[in-house]
Amino acid sequence: MEKLFLILLSGYGLTMIITKGNIFKQIRERITTYSMKLGIFISCPQCVGLYCGVLLSLFCGVGIKYCLIYGFAVSGVGYTINKI
Questions:
Q1: Residue 58's closest CA among 48, 69, 47?
Q2: Quick one: DSSP state of residue 30?
Q3: pLDDT tens by residue, 18-69
């Protein structure tokens, strides 16, 4: 249970850093000038959250069959918090 909580919090943080943080602003702008679709993707917390959740769950040693579920969970948390 604590592993799930850790992945949810760190996944949300990583998602926000990538999609909204100033440190990645130039990278997001460069990607957007290259491709509008990729620019929309890299700015979407729900989209990036899925991949962050999958990668973090692999990194934390969660079984392969649960990686996608954790990805969906991080994506859902990111979407929910951004709508509040």
A1: 69
A2: H
A3: 999 999 999 999 999 999 989 889 988 899 999 999 999 999 888 888 899 9
| Structure tokens given for 52 | 């962050």
The pLDDT confidence band at residue 83, using thresholds 50, 70 and 90, is confident
The first and second tokens of residue 1, run together, are 């249970």
For residue 34, with 0-12 CB atoms within 10 Å meaning exposed, 13-18 middle and 19 or more buried, which class applies? exposed
Structure tokens at 7: 């992945």
The predicted model scores a pTM of: 0.85
Provide the residue type at 79 as one letter.
Answer: Y
Tokens 């957007």, residue located: 32
CA gyration radius, the chain: 13
